[in-house]
Model the fold of this input.
Amino acid sequence: MRIGAHVRLDSDPIGFGERLGAEVIQMFVVDPQSWDKPVPHPRAEQIRTSSIDVVIHSSYQINVASLNNRLRMPSRNAVAQQAKAAAELGAFGLVVHGGHVRSDAERDTGIDNWRKLFERQQDKGGFAVPILIENTAGGNHAMARHFDAIARLWDAVGDYGAGFCLDTCHAWAAGEDLIGIVERIEAITGRIDLVHLNSSRDEFDSGADRHANFAHGTIDPQLLAEVCRTARAPVVLETPADGIADDLAYLRQHLG
Done:
């Protein structure tokens, strides 16, 4: 089990990880609010050769499910570009949010758009790293908020080698019970490649994506530790920076 944290645009991501004693870090390769094309990281060699594992989180505006060509097409390009940049850093995957459509009537097309992302990239030799689809917290027409929606999405993309990233705050906000959640999602996807282990500032089924440190959140920290223990996957904390060291210490104490 490898545990670590998200790096918030730090110019020295490996140094950040070393200071925390992390075994894995998550980072961006572009400004997460932009459509920028990735450029070579100035510390690429250090990142590639470090004993700390690396996973990349894609930029936030990506929505490959969208029926709007002006959003979907740049999103497809951004996924491919950021996956290539992730491979150049030796990362084990690229996390991409499930995205959303505008109505229930568009949901089937949104699922088909996800399938086409993988299908068309497969014709180009596939993505440079695995694409890890992350469950999301809110949105009535989100592609990966509720587990029944994830099941429908997985029927379309699972055979293309899609990976899965389980976010505990997002699941809590979506109204998905965290007790037994690992078994439930593995029954759908057959895999969990990464866990975003976050508490929440808000109550269960709020639909709000607001992460909290373990000591101040609404999720029982022992339940978070149990998710960490049973998932058998790398774990990244995306909790507020001033409490990440305490969150890591709690996990190490309770996981042995």
User: Anything to note?
Assistant: The two ends are 11 Å apart (CA to CA).
